[in-house]
Amino acid sequence: MKSTLVERRAEMLRLYTRLPWKKALQRVQACAPGSRLIPEPNRQQVLLEAQVLRCLAWPSISTLRPWGIRSVDPRPDSLVIEFENEEVNRRQPEESMVRELARVLPPRADEYGEISGVPGGRFAVEKGVVVLRRPGSTASVTLAGITPEEWADAVDYRDHEEALLGMSLCHRESPDNWTGTEFAFAREGSWYTRWITGSAWLPSGLLRRAGLLRTIGAPLHTSSWTNPADNNGQAWIVEYQHEPLVDLPQHHQRFMALLTAPEWGLPLRQTDHWCSCDRPHDMTECRIISCSALGQPGELQMRFTRRTGKRLLGLCPPDEYAARRQLYVEVPERMVQAGGRPSRP
Fold first, then answer.
1. Which of 68, 96, 140, 311 has its CA 20 to 30 A from that of 55?
2. Residues 167 and 239 both lie in one domain
């Protein structure tokens, strides 16, 4: 158990972000007492992060961690995401996290003007790491955990494949500015902007707390998608397939308590739920639906899908299964309680 207030705050920061202990401790030591360690990002940053999670939401490869994220380092005007790149998660020789990122993040346009990737997204190497920015914006997302050489090779490979399919490579056609197609697609008032903007706080907030998902159980597969919400925003559905590694009734409630903690979490209010924790079957699913406690557009539906017994056998190779079990983060009750109380000097 951590003894000082600084250490306890660093422990909580690490729980939400999975930052290495030394870095989490340095972050707390550098901040004023009582300040938010997962700060609210500015508007441009919120929109960029929402776009990034939209692209990462449904990975086409098998990742060990949710969305392939090892850790996040959130600041008001930037976000550093360290991605995994282990060999153990590559079920096919051509799979890799860097190729997945090169597939989903760079903007490419089809013949109808629809943009895949992050509209306006441009990539540059800054201080030895790949950074995503948009022309005319100060917001940034750093892609840590991959080398610039790996990124360049992966983008070249993916761009070649996409060009053969007739896609326009926006980031190559106009390296320093938005293309006309991108601008028309994401202009103020377009269906895309209306769809993304109002609910952007939700995917941005989830991305800044990506490490918290691993407190539910051993991660087996994480996917997410969006539907229209009843309050004119986006409904984000996050399905976390996992093996529970704690014998607690309604173990998902610990995750929800931390996700909505006053100092650390998101301003969410539960509106509905379906719990099947008492069912004896080896595959059950609980659902918790929440909306903004502040009246913002958007809705979150968390699906806690359990895999045990026969449903777990054959789901992944033995070495991969062992690696997944090691990623589970157990949360002591004292930390659940601490998440509900503001830290005081």
1. 311
2. no
Indicate whether 310 and 165 sit together in one domain.
no
Same domain, 194 and 217: no
| 52 and 189, same domain (yes or no) | yes
pLDDT digits (tens, 9 = 90+) for 134-180: 999 999 999 999 999 999 999 999 999 999 999 999 999 999 999 99
* Type of residue numbered 143: L
Report the pLDDT averaged over residues 84-95.
Answer: 75
d(CA 84, CA 150): 13
Single out the residue in 185, 202, 219 at which a domain terminates.
202
The answer to whether residues 52 and 109 belong to one domain is yes
128 & 97 share domain: yes
Q: Which of 20-34, 50-64, 318-332 has the lowest mean pLDDT?
A: 318-332
Q: Would you call 64 helix, strand, or coil by DSSP?
A: coil
Q: Which domain holds residue 185?
A: 38-202
Q: What is the pLDDT of residues 217-270, one digit of tens each?
A: 899 999 999 998 887 789 999 999 988 876 655 578 889 999 999 999 999 999
Q: Give me the phi and psi of 283, to 5 degrees please.
A: -140, 110
Q: Which of 96, 83, 312, 113 is nearest to 210 (CA)?
A: 83
What are the start-end ranges of the E strands in 229-296?
Answer: 234-243, 268-274, 283-292
Q: Do 48 and 139 meet the contact criterion of CB atoms below 8 Å apart?
A: yes
* Cβ-proximal residues to 69 (8 Å cutoff; 6+ apart), any chain: 56, 81, 82, 83, 84, 210, 211
Q: What's residue 314's pLDDT?
A: 72
